[in-house]
Amino acid sequence: MKIKLLNILKVTLAAAALSSAATLPAAAAELADIQAANTIKVGVLIDFPPYGILNENNEPDGYDATVAKTLADDLGVELNLIPVTGPNRIPFLLSGQVDILVSSLAISPARAEKVDFSNPYAAIRIGVMGQADLDITSAADLAGVSVAVARASGQDTTITEIAPETTEIRRFDDDVSAVQALLSGQVQTIGASNTVMAQIRQIAPGRFDEKFTLNQFRLAIAVSPDAPELLAYVNEFLAGVTASGALNEAHMQWLDEPLPSFNE
């Protein structure tokens, strides 16, 4: 009986060990691992148009997916696009569920402590857009002008800091409500990202133009900190598609504006 119980205990412990091992984070992929697997797993957003969307076939698409596909083609491997969210994208990378992130991840010191960033491949620009006949070129020109912003957004914080006291800052629950206020004439200007401004130009061509830039957040491809060869390859790839104009072409396709300069 003791021997039988001991054998059962051994089997139970072995099963537990296997179960525990199965839940351990996978090792991050290096360049050689991706080439050996003949597949690259790329984490992309699907809820951040036009960088990340679901197309009519319910597949990940957008600017980020286009960059990811070009990278996979350059590597000569199959592409596996894996949807991620803002909160889980870095954990997905560090646990090995994806090999890299092309997920509109803005470079920041805090994030750089967890992942390695490539050179920038895009940027989200925050600016002020207004009625075309308004002569506005700087924050000082917002004196006496009404401006819509999404409450607690980056543009709300920045405009609050730099606008003259006579600026009428109207805060809305989201970008959609702020855009509606601009289109309906409730306000003269709006603080918004370049993606929102592109949508406004499509909805109301010629009525509004961008007045000046408030801030710019550079986006980069992220790799695990223990994948230096992969990072080097990604940077070489970005340099190549930038020089060839392919990256600018993709940027024009999805954002309807040229790729920004990252040398400033």
List the helices and strands and how they pair.
Elements: H1 2-23, H2 31-37, E1 39-45, E2 53-54, E3 60-61, H3 63-75, E4 78-84, H4 89-94, E5 100-106, H5 109-112, E6 116-131, E7 146-150, H6 154-162, E8 168-172, H7 175-183, E9 189-193, H8 194-203, E10 208-223, H9 228-244, H10 246-255
Parallel strand pairs: 1-4, 1-5, 7-8, 7-9
Antiparallel strand pairs: 2-3, 5-10, 6-9, 6-10
What does this structure look like?
The protein has 264 residues and is of the alpha/beta class. Helix content is 41%, strand content 27%. It contains 10 helices and 10 strands. Strand 7, helix 6 (154-162) and strand 8 form a beta-alpha-beta unit. The longest helix is centred in the first third of the chain and has 22 residues, at 2-23. It is elongated, with a radius of gyration of 24 Å. Residues 1-25 have low confidence and may be disordered.
